[in-house]
Amino acid sequence: MSSGGKKSDPQQPPPKAASSGAGPSLAIRIAASIALAFHVFVLFLYPLANGRSSETISSMAGWPGFRWYAEPLYLNHGHGFFGPDPGAGFLIEYDIRDSDGEVVKQGKFPDPDTIWPRLRYHRYKMLADQPASSGPNLNLILEGYARQLLRQYGGESVTVNYIAHDILRHYDWLGDAERNIEGRTLDDKSLYSTRAQVRQSRADVEAADAALKSGTEEAPSPDGENSAPPEEIFGGRPQ
Amino acid sequence: MSTIREGMSEYWGDAWAAWNRFWFTPTAPATLSAIRVFAGAMLFYTHLVWSRDLYAFFGPNGWLPLDYYAFQRGYYEDGMLPSFAWSLFQHLHSPLLIWLIHIVALVCFFMLMIGLFSRWVAVLSAFFAIMYAVRVTPGAYFGLDKINCLLAMYLMLGPCGARYSVDRLWRMRKGATGDVPKSVMANVAIRLIQLHMCAIYLYAGLGKLEGQTWWTGEAIWLSIASLEYQSLDVTWLGHFPWIMNLLAHTTVAFELFYPFLIWPRFTRPWMLATAVGMHLFIAMCMGMITFGVVMLIGNLAFVRPTTVRKVMDPLARRFALFVLGDKAG
């Protein structure tokens, strides 16, 4: 709204330009208001419905009336960027061998030296990070990765190690000059530990591919009914 | 009694008027159009990068096998409705078909960026962006996908091609000389982006309150010392703990107060400046350039159309003169 002789800006709406009488009809406003209120409620509901939320919120988030809306629109997730605490990084290390036991390919991901641009690197980082929060499904996911590595590089068998890289605490990095303790580096070997190990063979790849072709896939079994049990290494072991 | 009734009536009348002003005031579509240009570019780039590993990520038996995808979505569970999320990729096995869909999606995102048939390609872009994100969730998704999807979804609600678009050039070539009209739907789209950004920051802040290291200030160290994230070594900050503590506390305070302080015009520039600083830090030091940039695109929703026009119009005018010559007016 212009005042004091200033020229008003045609693109800038005056603060109280719209009264309930301008623009869409009342019926449209009421219908749109209900839809908007529902949408905004969903925006705030799903991040609230995490593992620690109340029974009320959990059951609301699980109600099909909200799910049919939130899930197809990709609104059913939280926003915990680096929360509650920044955590360890994870690496997938692999060793692919041919039928004579010779090395076909050894490597790891994510690897900034071989995977670029940075966004692509980040996708592989997510592949390595997200199994960490998958609980009993960990070996199921790792077996899938192992089979994909065999498809990608050939070979007869592959061993995949799931490695956690704990972050060096600040005081360990600084060290303690008075007590003659030297600071450690971010890639100190003691920070790496193997959380799980899986092996897959060419036969496993063929079985998975055949099941897909024939459309007879079975429900994956996280408790190991259909797959080799995970080689869980409790507490991890130093690399 | 009648005083109470009058007071209540006045309160609800004012509330309804405020609600109307918030949602249904027509606004210039300059901000929405600028968001379309940048979000379209981001969608195009994000999905172009998938091309290198397309079949490995979106094929039926790649990094994220379909049987695990179905398992995650509850298709095998009794007594529970499976996920309502849907992706075309869950039905495609042929590499040729997957590539065909991918190329169509890339063309769509490119058309959104340049603003050709903007409204239509905005709808398709939202469809494709969600379809890609759903297929790689869980497994390879992260914050970038969430913001890409929300921007694409809200762009389709308003006249996102009204400015800075091929559509606009086309209209000018056909003789349209009048200014772009204000639009209620442009306002609705912008309001939804604004509220969504508020929800994102609020929950990001609340999530951090559950941790210890955001209270102790060590979270910044843990972020910059993560070799898997690090793209620029700023561990020298470790010699200045007070800076790291200040950054940690500022981050949490910013995220928690963003939903409240981004609205008043006196605090808005400060919040936007902090957002720029924070996201550039994340982009440069932690290698999440795309995520940092897409968050800034979301923040653009809080920039007034007049400000956007001051920056974008001279560029758009030069481009129009170059393409249309005298017809650009």
**Rg of chain A, alpha carbons:** 27 Å
Q: What composes the largest sheet of chain B?
A: none
Count of individual helical segments of chain B = 15
How many separate domains of chain A? 2
By DSSP, the count of extended strands of chain A is: 5
Q: Tell me, rounded to a whole number, the average pLDDT of chain B.
A: 92
The total of helices of chain A stands at 7
* SSE pattern of chain A: HHHEEHHEHEHE
Give the total of beta strands of chain B: 0
Tell me, what's the shape of chain A? Answer: extended
- Taking the alpha carbons of the first and last residues of chain B, their distance comes to 63 Å
The ordered string of helix (H) and strand (E) elements of chain B is HHHHHHHHHHHHHHH
What pair of chains forms the biggest interface? A-B, 88 and 99 residues
Portion in beta strands of chain A: 15-25%
- Unreliable residue stretches of chain B: none
Distance between the termini of chain A: 69 Å
Keywords:
heterodimer; A: 239 residues; alpha+beta; 2 domains; 5-stranded antiparallel β-sheet; 7 helices; 15% strand; disordered N terminus; disordered C terminus; B: 329 residues; mainly alpha; 15 helices
